[in-house]
Design goal:
carbohydrate metabolism, Lysozyme, 2 strands, about 290 residues, globular, about 40% helix, binds 2-acetamido-2-deoxy-beta-D-glucopyranose, endochitinase activity, polysaccharide degradation, Glyco_hydro_19, single chain, 2 domains, two-stranded antiparallel sheet
């Protein structure tokens, strides 16, 4: 049941966070209206994801998802991704900075998703097998409601946040039944800091996050490498362990998707997290 509870919490938290953000935006900078996909936010002024990420890109990124050996045939779709993304574009998902930054962010997010849902390790074209599963979409579900999670530790009150849609979201099996909700949960994870004194993957990727001296000493720089640090923490042993296969396969998905979308990746050490110290390690020995 732990999984069930955590999924419900994250979806409720998602809605609460989106509402709070919407409220903030209204009082702030000039807002733009670009229709259903992105309206009422300064981020929308920079265009929408459908401007640069089309259905054919989705097909090119995930060509084997309906294969006979795939586990979620017919489940994932471009429409589901765009509908989910539309909930977060007003908060800057894929709409921060110019078009190139948007493309990079979508490729980075989908790179994580593709690597996590791939079943292609043993097949030819290992990078073509993203979205083969519809489980374990949100990396590290244990984050949402466990003792080491200071920010979202089983927030009882949030669960009963009054809104008509909530009872629907309280059925976590929807994550495996509804691709839009599954993408929403994963984008929420990308957009939201889940631990105290830790930025979101979005913020480290688009450059909103400014590393402190301790971050620099810990080799944490803005970029794709730090998003792995945030998405996987210290539970998955991805970061700080050198150039392991587990880390390389995530980076490979990101770079492959960028190539397909026609954008060059950053160079240098911001791409990997081979010698990054993890944010907020659960053992007190390193970091703080
Ligand atoms: C996968 O299946 C969906 C739903 O049936 C369909 O819309 C899509 O075009 C298919 N894509 C591929 C690459 O087979
Ligand atoms: C919009 O794009 C411009 C040009 O790339 C950039 O300078 C600006 O910061 C972006 N605005 C937002 C809200 O991301
Ligand atoms: C999936 O969830 C979305 C968002 O809540 C909803 O609009 C859509 O109708 C659902 N799709 C199905 C097939 O239930």
């Amino acid at each position: 049941m732990k999984r069930a509870q955590t999924a419900a919490f994250l979806l409720v938290a998602l809605l609460a966070a989106a509402e709070a953000e919407a409220r903030r935006e209204k009082g702030g900078d000039k807002a733009c209206d670009t229709g259903w996909e992105c309206s009422g936010s300064r981020f929308c002024c920079n265009g929408t994801i459908t401007d640069y990420f089309k259905a054919h890109h989705f097909e090119e990124l995930f060509p084997r998802r309906n294969d006979s050996i795939a586990h979620a045939t017919g489940f994932w779709s471009y429409q589901a991704f765009i509908a989910a993304a539309a909930q977060f574009e007003p908060r800057g998902f894929g709409t921060t900075g110019g078009k190139d930054t948007g493309i990079k962010e979508v490729a980075a997010f989908l790179g994580h998703v593709g690597a996590r849902t791939s079943c292609g390790k043993i097949y030819p074209d290992p990078l073509a097998w993203g979205l083969c599963y519809n489980r374990e979409m949100s990396p590290d579900q244990s984050y949402y409601c466990d003792d080491s999670n200071e920010l979202y530790r089983c927030v009882e009150g949030v669960r009963y946040y009054g809104r008509g849609a909530i009872p629907v979201y309280c059925h976590p099996e929807l994550l495996e039944q509804n691709a839009t909700i599954a993408f929403e949960a994963a984008i929420w994870r990308w957009m939201t800091p889940v631990k105290r004194r830790q930025p979101s993957a979005h913020d480290v990727f688009v450059g909103n996050w400014k590393p402190t001296k301790r971050d620099t000493v810990s080799k944490r720089y803005p970029g794709f490498g730090a998003t792995m640090n945030i998405m996987y923490g210290d539970g998955h042993h991805i970061c700080g362990r050198g150039f392991t296969d587990e880390m390389n396969v995530i980076i490979s998905h990101y770079i492959y998707y960028l190539d397909l979308m026609g954008v060059n990746h950053e160079s240098g050490r911001s791409l990997d997290c081979a010698d990054q110290v993890v944010f907020n390690p659960s053992t007190k020995s390193s970091g703080s």
